[in-house]
Amino acid sequence: MTTVTRGAVGTAHTRVEGRDKVTGAARYAAEIPFAELAHGWLVLSTVARGRVRSVESDAALAMPGVLAVLHHGNAPRVDTDYVGLMGMSPDPSIALFQQERVAHLGWPVALVVAETSEQAREAAESLVVHYDQEPHDVAFSAERQSEAYALDGHMPGVVEKGDLEDRLAASAVVLDAEYTTPEEYHNPMEPHAATALWEGGRLEVVDSNQGTTWIAGELANLFSLDPASVRVRSEHVGGGFGSKGVRAHQVAAVMAATVLQRPVRVVMTRRQMFSLTGYRSPTAQRVRLGADADGRLRVLEHQSLNQTSSVHEFVEPSAAAGRSMYGAEAHHTASRIVRLDVPTPTWMRAPGEAPGSFALESAFDELAERCGIDPIELRLRNEPEVGPVSGLPFSSRNLAACFQEGARRFGWADRDPRPGVRREGRWLLGTGTAAASFPAGAMPSSAAVTAEADGTFTVRINAADIGTGARTALTVVAADALEVPTDRVRVRIGDSDLGPAMFAGGSMGTRSWAWAVTTAAAELRQSLAPGADIPAEGITVRSNTAEAVGALAQKERHSFGAQFAEVAVDPATGEVRVRRMLGVFAAGRIVNPLTARNQLVGGMIWGISMALHEEAVRDRTSGGLYGADLAGYHVAAHADIPHIEADWVDDPDPDDPVGIKGIGEIGIVGAAAAVANAVWHATGVRHRNLPIRPDRVLMAGGDA
Amino acid sequence: MKEFGYQRAYDVSGAVALLDGDGEARFLGGGTNLVDLMKTGVERPARLVDVRELPLNQIEATEDGGLRIGATVTNSDLAAHPEVRRRYPALTQAVLAGASGQLRNMATVGGNLLQRTRCGYFADVTSPCNKRDPGSGCPAIEGEHHNHAVLGASEHCVATHPSDMGVALTAFDARVSYETADGPGELPLADFYLPVGETPHLETALPPGALITGVTLPPAPVAAGSRYRKVRERASYAFAIGSIAAALDVRDGVVHDVRLAFGAVASRPWRARTAESVLTGAPADAETFAAAADAELAAARPLPHNGYKVKLMRNLVVAVLSELAEEAAR
């Protein structure tokens, strides 16, 4: 080969499917045409707890175009007695129409299928369902702690080291503060949508999800099918953030396609997404920090409470955030749950770390204030040599480098630490900082790389590009491993027939897939004799990283970061505006700076939105949400987003073939705390409850 | 969604005739609110009469020095009109503070006045709501109401009117013109919205089947230095939690003329006449502004979670009037 290009990794590449997306050529799940397509519309419960007494199907069936009404009396049976890819039994919420029990408001009670989507919707909205309503309980608050219990989720529930009370007594300074975060929703732009059909004895599902290996496995288990007879495709995905796993739309579509023996599409409305696709639980957190006068920690205690449904346990592991961050003689962390008549919460971008870092990193700012120490210096004084609880070595830990570089670029050295003393017109100004960390990991994946007869290469890996730029990143990684330019590499993803692979989640997608792609591509390159002819069917090398990933030594493996924010607060109106933000991250080798910056800035915007805007309000009388749409649930608008810079320090992962750690979530972590800490610096008032709404700022005082 | 008929009208009398007082039919302007409500099932008209093509898209000066604004003038065109910007800048500012560029390009002046509350209970057909379903109850009073009314509400409804434009028009004594099968009519905007009382579902004094044809602004020299300030929970694309349209004429340190209207605090744009009467003839200083705000807000009846609006409006009155007074003094 004469046109060898080395080092595509680390250089900027626009998205390989970018042109298709901006011209509309890229088809999303609900846009792909099928002959004989029928449309299903979900009917959701209007009570928060009770039983479906009856469904008046006859009237709906008589309406124009209506083909079927599925409900607990006639729907195909599903099996939930299995352990899926996520290592747990499925949330019974996805076992649609299996029994008459209603576990929350917005629980699926029926599916109306019709020739057109409009006909299905009209019949669904006029379908009369009778309920035996029971009193419900949706009142989440810190006071529910007495009914709560600890739970291991993707993190251990409780971790304790050292004698808490003894070390508190030995602390010169003790901070004890409570923080809350509200119910938050993923709200990807593209709603959940699936089309199911039977073709040649195989179940085909065209869907919008975060991993077709995962969804195909769940559907095979639920419907007791041979895994080989289920194919799920998901080529383009308009955001997922943890919400696009197995959900009611796929299950409903498969049921209806099975009953009607024709293709059936089910698309959720935005409002339906607010009860069917998961959410981040509200949290009530308490942090106690004990320190010497010079800020060295003796105690780190972090307790977190979240709600879950009556049918499934999900823990938001907010208390786990500190386990790898800061050393303390007594280190106690616990995440607990309380069961209510609400939908089951789920993973939402930076689960645990997002709300947990708000509490812990706010508490650190408060401790810095108490000790009279600069907030960055306080964190640097508490940098651990090894895992504070585990005792394991860090694979790499470059938090201090992030703070040093961030402080230099943000101009932190010139900061007057006194709160409430900078004014510009009607605005009070302040700056704040916070640390960030997120676990780095990899999961087994398989890949196939083919040298084609025309000199190009085809990479087949069942990755999911949910808007992250994964397809482009894998193109770049494959090109480097093959030592060819990127334009000779074609990457196929989003199809369960491509073989098992990690889903897009846990900031582990690109690393897991890149590992498999690199392994296969490197082996293929070595096997290709220079100048030798390639047969018409090409030469294919396959990889599976299960063994290599399993052989990774136990270490503390994390990305780190330092967040900086400057805010302006009008104390007369309570308005808060972020003026600028900077995040500096140590997050492994950056494959594609263009899309990486996009991900990190996106995470920081998410953090601003979390700090100032996002909040779903649950009405205690109905048990459902108030204003469950994008008019009622505010995310940051363009005008809320100032100049944001995201950058990184050199931090290649020593144990990853490409050096990747993962960047999907770290951008959020600490961002809300940095904003909240800046609001304190501007006004002198500490906000421990998110979001920092104008009414909260206004009524908290600090008037000038 | 429910199937509906669609007709387009090309002249005013034709539009009124097409609607024919049919309670199941609606006029369609920009559709920026009605179509949303049809999607969610709050509105289920059998028939739409599209009035976008009516020849009501002009803004003209009146002989007495005011402006007549056609009902189908888009929000964008209204905000951009040189005479609106020159004579009633608060109106331009109010319109530009609402919605988004795309929505303002579609939304009409007539439709803006008739838009419905954004109360989340009203928008959710599974929820009780006295405005949508008379007699079913108002869950907001015991439930979520942190952006609900503090002035002029009743035990039957605490929803607010969402319009920004309407707040500025109210401050400047706009009159609403309409057409019915029996001929034209006119209502002062101050009387256009009905008190909430026991009938929150009855929102305007328009006769049944009437079509809004325009809005007339009388001359108001004080409005030339007017201002609109809107506070909301994000920097754009959100309804107000409190807003103010204000104009102030100060002569020799004394308030000669003043216009003050509040948004997001009541079921209609709220003309602060009590405050205006306190201000008129009084010294133009922060103390007077605060006293005027307190006098107006003495009628406030906040619920447990919206009491901040009283403080917010007081602060807005003081802040905006102080700004205007300072600018006038320069």
From TrEMBL, chain A:
Keywords assigned: Molybdenum, Oxidoreductase
Pfam families: Ald_Xan_dh_C, MoCoBD_1, MoCoBD_2
GO molecular function: iron ion binding; oxidoreductase activity
Gene3D superfamilies in the cross-refs: Aldehyde oxidase/xanthine dehydrogenase, a/b hammerhead (3.90.1170.50), Aldehyde oxidase/xanthine dehydrogenase, molybdopterin binding domain (3.30.365.10)
InterPro entries noted in UniProt: Ald_Oxase/Xan_DH_a/b, Ald_Oxase/Xan_DH_a/b_sf, Ald_Oxase/xanthine_DH-like, AldOxase/xan_DH_MoCoBD1, AldOxase/xan_DH_MoCoBD2, AldOxase/xan_DH_Mopterin-bd_sf
Residues covered by the Aldehyde oxidase/xanthine dehydrogenase a/b hammerhead domain: 23-135
Protein name: Oxidoreductase
Organism lineage: Bacteria, Bacillati, Actinomycetota, Actinomycetes, Kitasatosporales
Automatic annotation (TrEMBL), chain B:
Keywords on record: Oxidoreductase
The keyword Oxidoreductase belongs to this UniProt entry's keyword annotation: yes
Domain FAD-binding PCMH-type: 1-222
InterPro entries: CO_DH_flav_C, CO_DH_flav_C_dom_sf, Diverse_Substr_Oxidored, FAD-bd_PCMH, FAD-bd_PCMH-like_sf, FAD-bd_PCMH_sub1, FAD-bd_PCMH_sub2, Mopterin_DH_FAD-bd
GO MF annotation list: FAD binding; oxidoreductase activity
Domain of life: Bacteria
Name of the protein: 4-hydroxybenzoyl-CoA reductase, beta subunit
Database matches in Pfam families: CO_deh_flav_C, FAD_binding_5
UniProt source species: Streptomyces viridochromogenes (strain DSM 40736 / JCM 4977 / BCRC 1201 / Tue 494)
